[in-house]
Recover the amino acids of this structure.
């Protein structure tokens, strides 16, 4: 499961049934959700624990039963705490194309001309429909496709019929422009994380001086550029530890760490264990 990439290259589901479900626990190598974006919508349902979610620079805390609907193109990431959560990724245009009126109603939100609240509390109609859609995907009982689609449509109807839709403000418009610049940085890191990357290299991608870039980047991702780069490299290393038989030193080098001792130090800072202990835990 590599859903944390800057912009996902993978297909979610199939052309006929454009839905993909990811169940995440603390044993998963991609437990933490690094900041990323994709063209599809993402529905997050928290089952237990808590989840600190960032969407386009705004912080939200989700508890058990809460959900978040993240529109395609939004920059998002999060840190779970003793959390089990499900992510349902779907192509909203594909599921609405058979109903022009529904697509028209959602288009301003899809195009980011209007905003939605994004987070819906446990017990709300929106959260209930969201959980039902995810449950249907998990159980996959006969006819589950109808229940997935039906509950998602009901969820979208609940969102558009409520007071959770509102126009953009000047501040929000300015935020969107900054986020577009940061997407270029994330793309650069995704492409070049195996290579040496300097702070100047990253700042250059969005046309900012280094000091302003560092402050602004942390505001939107809760990490400095260097912290994010190391975080991305460690998450990539975790995936390789679980998914390959490569030696740890080779994984370190393949993830941009030319100093194996430094790799061990950074890994332990992020994961609380050494790479070797993580390897034992994973198998």
């Amino acid at each position: 499961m590599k859903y944390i990439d800057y912009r996902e290259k993978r297909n979610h589901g199939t052309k006929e049934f454009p839905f993909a479900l990811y169940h995440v626990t603390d044993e998963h190598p991609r437990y933490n959700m690094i900041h990323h974006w994709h063209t599809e919508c993402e529905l997050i349902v928290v089952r237990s624990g808590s989840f600190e979610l960032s969407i386009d620079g705004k912080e939200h805390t989700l508890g058990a039963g809460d959900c978040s609907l993240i529109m395609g193109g939004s920059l998002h990431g999060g840190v779970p705490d003793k959390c089990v959560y499900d992510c349902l990724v779907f192509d909203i245009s594909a599921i609405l194309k058979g109903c022009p009126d529904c697509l028209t109603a959602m288009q301003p939100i899809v195009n980011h001309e209007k905003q939605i609240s994004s987070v819906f509390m446990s017990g709300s109609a929106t959260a209930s429909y969201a959980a039902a859609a995810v449950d249907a995907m998990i159980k996959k009982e006969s006819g589950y496709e109808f229940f997935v689609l039906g509950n998602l449509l009901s969820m979208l109807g609940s969102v558009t019929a409520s007071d959770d839709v509102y126009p953009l403000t000047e501040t929000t418009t300015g935020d969107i422009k900054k986020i577009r610049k940061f997407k270029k940085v994330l793309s650069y890191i995704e492409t070049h994380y195996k290579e040496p990357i300097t702070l100047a290299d990253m700042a250059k991608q969005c046309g900012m001086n280094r000091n302003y870039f560092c402050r602004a980047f942390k505001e939107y991702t809760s990490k400095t550029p260097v912290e994010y780069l190391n975080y991305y490299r460690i998450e990539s290393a975790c995936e390789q530890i679980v998914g390959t038989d490569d030696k740890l030193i080779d994984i370190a080098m393949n993830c941009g760490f030319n100093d194996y001792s430094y790799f061990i130090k950074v890994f332990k800072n992020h994961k609380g264990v050494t790479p070797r202990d993580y390897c034992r835990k994973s198998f």
